[in-house]
Amino acid sequence: MGTVALARCGGRPFGAHLFSVWPGAAFAATAFPVRCAPGDNLALHVAVAQAPPGSALVVDVAGEAEYGYVDEILAVAARTRGVAGIVLDGCVRDVTAIAHCGLPVFGAGVSVREVGHDAGGAIGRQISMNATGPAPLPVRRGDWIVADDDGVVCLPRGQVSTIIAETMSSITREREIIDAVCAGESTLDLLGLDPSRVTGWEGGEHTNDPVPRGRPRQLNPRRGDRGGEGHPSTRSRRGSCSTVTDVYGGD
Fold first, then answer.
1. From the CB of residue 211, how many other CB atoms can be counted at a distance below 10 Å?
2. What is the pTM (predicted TM-score) of this model?
């Protein structure tokens, strides 16, 4: 499941300026929160040594983003110890080497400024990621973090199953719309849009089967009831979704 679909269905998006260090980087894993002291990454080194294999480090840098908190050494160490990925609201460095080691890392920028290793910090406790919208995004240990080329989202623990179920339904609906568009139908009718609101609209029928404006066309409701089994791309995602819910015990 992609982050776009998850965010549409209840996943909480991180800041828009977070990006993957290398194209194609992606992961889904439970969060292991880290809070670094400003300009220092000692807490990150401790987290790499202590985080459960398969978890993702989500790092609050205390508002001091202009340092390279994650470098080649940390990335290789995290990869070796089975960390699934790192998300931080600060900068990284050694981006080519991080890409080469294959660890998915998502950050707010690139900086050559080196950090200290002795100012403390905290791990395993709730943090607030400041790289997000009008208010900080709280992240707790056990929340699910999903990241890909479109961004990063948080699925709060206790809401994972509900978000996944709604996302599967949304993906099915989206694939049906794309199939209909490929067959020549208009997005105006499929999505129930009102073109008269746009200056310059010349009117006229753009479909042989118009529907009232504001009411999207219903597409194959039976197919949607099967949770996406009718489309190969949706079907391929189901295995990973089962793994997500099973590992977390259903939530």
1. 14
2. 0.77
